[in-house]
Structure of TetR/AcrR family transcriptional regulator C-terminal domain-containing protein:
Amino acid sequence: MTKVNREIVVSEALDLLDEVGLDTVSTRRLAKRLGVEQPSLYWYFRTKKDLLAAMAEAAMAPHAAAPLPMPDDDWRDWFLDNTRSFRRTLLMRRDGARLHAGSTPAGDLDRIRRKMDFLVTSGVPERDAQMAMLAAGRFTVGSVLEEQADAGDGSDPPTGMPVIDYESAFEAGLTLILDGLLVRASGVADGLRCEVRR
């Protein structure tokens, strides 16, 4: 019998995900891959949902290890780079967007707070910073979800439909989100300047 621990189980589960896709990942397949009896996996994960949550957290490790913003960083450049890092990480795993969707970033709350503090300190209104981060995150998951679904489909687009350049489409949408945030942030700054002039 293979000696396993929680980290090995998650790592093998992610490798299984890359091989067979999210719909086919099962504790039965994982146990067979590890050379253990299926009930032994319950020592580490009581339910498949618990296993998927651990897989989602581990799959996000590259993005979670990305440097946090520094006080002298330009918030606009950081916002773009942070969202691009999220996209790259989701694309690293087969069905990465589906695995991540609906997961709760329990271990990432401090990093999220620090990112929010950076935006607010840089002059972005707190509510707008929250909504922009939420919108960028959901836009990214949706974009990658579509990209990965099309990649897994293997079929050509219908006649007359253009082939989608997913990276260009992502960049265009991300720019629109940032442009909207810039308008909101500059509107607040203009309002403050008017107050000072009075």
Notes: Confidence is low (pLDDT under 50) at residues 189-198. The CA atoms of residues 97 and 145 lie 5 Å apart.
